[in-house]
Write a structure and sequence with these properties.
- This is DUF4397 domain-containing protein.
- The protein is mainly beta.
- The protein folds into 2 domains: about 120 residues, Immunoglobulin-like (Sandwich), CATH 2.60.40; about 120 residues.
- It has 2 helices and 20 strands.
- The radius of gyration is 28 Å and the shape is flat.
Length: about 280
């Protein structure tokens, strides 16, 4: 009986051993992992008075999500209060991610073409933008509104550093019909526009500078060059690039408007300001 069992299983056993031996080299081969997708950087700035008011409202339902390649306006946090989409909320009121010492921090995004949809706290889509992300240039998206009518500005400007210049980008998202101009260290810079109004913006305009300097920046209305509307200071150095952003309502704007989404009356305060960001 013992001999019979050995003969019965001998051939299958030999076949199994041969098969296992042929597979072992394959199992020991190195597997090359798939390459990681290339990623670029994106940053979002909230210069919208309507969104800022919503973010501080006790009636706010949820965060203002910026949906990436999605139309799911009912999107909410997952169980761990983590979002796969950028957003504005009580922690990120004016920017996502944070601004640290005037430097924007960035949200990594796979390179290529994407669609961005900004939502209000009820899930209504407010703006839709297409954007091309690459790994060389920063992408900054600015949101604003004029009396509840929203707009967005997508910037992917190229900046090439030089030893004797800076790049200065100017953005005006202050609602209204007014026009404004800047002075830097008490002089009107010839390189920048003589006047701007809501929606105007530039790329990185070259400005000659040979050493580190502190810019004292003031904003004036073209109708009143005596009283500065807002001011800020910015330390600049050759080879770097910066953004100057005007936002908020000036004191000569109408005191209220009817919200086109809700029909409610919105009462305004003077919130005009200029903000400096360091980009490169």
């Amino acid at each position: 009986m013992i001999v019979y069992i050995r003969k019965k299983f001998l051939l299958p056993l030999l076949a199994f051993c041969l098969l296992a031996g042929s597979l072992l080299p394959a199992c020991n081969k190195e597997i090359t992992p798939l390459p990681e997708p290339e990623r670029g950087n994106i940053f979002f700035y909230n210069a919208s008075g309507a969104l800022l008011g919503e973010l501080t409202s006790p009636n706010r339902r949820k965060a203002n999500f910026i949906l990436i390649d999605s139309q799911d306006s009912n999107y909410v946090w997952d169980a761990d209060h983590v979002s796969k989409h950028p957003y504005f909320d009580g922690r990120y009121i004016t920017s996502y991610p944070q601004i640290i010492n005037d430097w924007p921090t960035f949200f990594p995004m796979q390179t290529g073409t994407h669609t961005l949809r900004l939502t209000d706290s009820s899930g209504t889509i407010l703006t839709t933008d297409n954007i091309i992300i690459d790994k060389k240039n920063q992408a900054l998206v600015f949101y604003g509104d004029s009396c509840g009518i929203f707009r967005s500005l997508v910037t992917t400007d190229i900046f090439t550093p030089t030893d004797s210049q800076i790049g200065m980008r100017l953005i005006n998202l202050s609602p209204g019909d007014g026009k404004y101009f800047l002075t830097i260290n008490k002089k009107i810079p010839a390189e920048l526009p003589a006047a701007t109004h809501y929606g105007d913006h530039t790329g990185f305009v070259p400005m000659n500078i040979i050493r580190q300097d502190t810019f004292s920046i003031k904003v004036f209305s073209t109708s009143d060059s005596s009283n500065a509307l807002s001011r800020t200071s910015l330390i600049v150095a050759p080879g770097h690039a910066y953004t100057l952003l005007m936002s908020g309502y000036p004191d000569n704007h109408a005191a209220s408007y009817k919200d086109p989404r809700t029909g409610e009356m919105i009462y305004l305060q003077t919130t005009f300001t200029i903000k400096a960001l360091k980009n490169y």
